Amino acid sequence: MKKLVFAVFCLFSLGMSPIPDQTCDSESFATACIPKLANGFNFLKSYKVDGIAKDKVEYSYVFTKGTQYLINLCANGTATDGIVVSIFDKERNKVATSKVNGQFISAIAYPCNATGIYYIQYTFDDPSAHCGGSALGFKR
Amino acid sequence: MRLLILGITTTLLVSCSSGKKPDDEAFLKSLENETSAGAGVDEEVINSILEQIPSPLEISVLLKESGSKYSPEMLNPSTNIPKYNSNYKKALNLGVYGTDLGYTNIFGRNSDGIKYITSIKSLADELNIGQFFDVVTIGRLAANSKNLDSLLLITTMNFNHINHYLQSQSRDNLSVLLLTGGWVEAMHVTCQTAVKNPSNLELREKVGEQKIVLEQILLLFSFYKDDANMAGLLADLESLKAAYDKVEISYTYKESTMQIVDGVAVIKDNSTTTINITPQNVEEIKNVTNSIREKITS
């Protein structure tokens, strides 16, 4: 009987085992990023940045002239954990990046002067696993 | 001992079940008559386009900052809700009321906002997505005008959750309708305000630049041509596109510059767009938008 109880307990424990190291809970990071938007910015979107499943993560959004957008980054450990966010215009010209002279910046403020579709791209500084989240806000 | 074994085994069986909540099942059942995108269409493509559509809240903020006065008569009355009997109409008007709620919030008209909160909750419940709309918290925040930031935050989050849920359930067609309803209502309010203020160039340009959003919405609708309701709305949106064909938008790229201020990379965007739109164009766009909105809200 004790063996049966032990076997059932082991099965139960397996089902409840912690998430393996290589899983990225990017949703939690994305949610955590929302209240970190600077004062005066209204929340628009939160983005999951799972650098384990993919080596590049991209979203897009229509930015409008006369509006200032803020994109921030949240990750475990050091401020951005090697995650870089870059913005590209509709012609794929890079108009902003959070990696400046080798330094990782945790937020980009983009006062848009040209309405159009912009691509918000997250890349990773080295091949190791990266996991994080990001939020987009706006103000006039 | 037997009880212990029984308890543990039951727990295991429950934890190994499908994990589908009753709400999920009810939702899927309720949408049996709806159609999703045509075969072969990549849902990831649809979702990425859906994510591009700007929030109507951006327009409401512009309207307030342009000095235009609060005009509730432009909005869809919250009492219209009994008119919406199909999932198609419910999803569209959930979007319409979402825009109206944002508008009342931005102008700090909380008593009007509460009426929209009630209508939104009702429509969301009927679509079995009411669990994502935290009406108690929103109602509490709306009771005090000092809570505007929190109110805007939570309503935006609730609508984002609804859209993500619909997309994850492969019911992206409802997500498309929700966003389209919200956009048409924002267009209606912007056009009405622009026509009343013909000297306000920024408002006129705001109407003009919606051409970019319309192109994305048309792209989304092209995936649902087999759905009679959506094909009908697509035809109406095509007539709006015809009015927009007279509006010209040109883009000039110039490399941006940047400086770091308080740990934030602050960009100076040196690119420009020029939007050529006349007051007559605005009038025509307003009339077409109005006829589309009439069909949606009636």
Explain this structure:
The complex is a heterodimer of chains A (140) and B (298). Chain A has 140 residues and is α+β, with helices and mostly antiparallel strands. Helices cover 16% and strands 44% of the residues of chain A. A 4-stranded antiparallel β-sheet of chain A has the order 1-10-3-8. Mean pLDDT of chain A is 85; it is low at 4-20. Chain B has one domain (39-248, 278-297). Chain B is built from 12 helices and 4 strands; from the N terminus they run H-H-H-H-H-H-H-H-H-H-H-E-E-E-E-H. In chain B, strand 2 (257-261) and strand 3 (264-268) form a beta hairpin. The longest helix of chain B has 25 residues, at 172-196. Chains A and B meet through helix 1, strand 1, strand 2, strand 5 and strand 8 of A and helix 1, helix 3, helix 4, helix 8 and helix 10 of B.
Helix/strand-derived class of chain B?
mainly alpha
C-alpha-based Rg of chain A, rounded:
19 Å
Number of domains of chain A: 1
CATH topology (level 3) name of chain A = Jelly Rolls
Unreliable parts of chain B? 1-34
Residue share in helix of chain B: 55-70%
* Largest sheet: spatial strand order of chain B: 1-4
Quick rundown:
The complex is a heterodimer of chains A (140) and B (298). Chain A has 140 residues and is of the alpha+beta class. Chain A is 16% helix and 44% strand.
What key phrases describe this protein's structure?
heterodimer, A: 140 residues, alpha+beta, Jelly Rolls, 4-stranded antiparallel beta sheet, 2 helices, globular, B: two-stranded antiparallel sheet, disordered N terminus
Which helices and strands occur, and which strands form pairs?
The complex is a heterodimer of chains A (140) and B (298).
Chain A: H1 2-15, H2 26-33, E1 42-50, E2 57-63, E3 68-75, E4 83-88, E5 94-97, E6 99-100, E7 103-104, E8 107-111, E9 116-124, E10 131-139
Antiparallel strand pairs in A: 1-10, 2-9, 3-8, 3-10, 4-5, 4-9, 6-7
Chain B: H1 2-15, H2 22-30, H3 43-52, H4 56-65, H5 87-106, H6 110-126, H7 135-142, H8 148-168, H9 172-196, H10 201-221, H11 228-244, E1 248-252, E2 257-261, E3 264-268, E4 272-276, H12 279-297
Antiparallel strand pairs in B: 1-4, 2-3
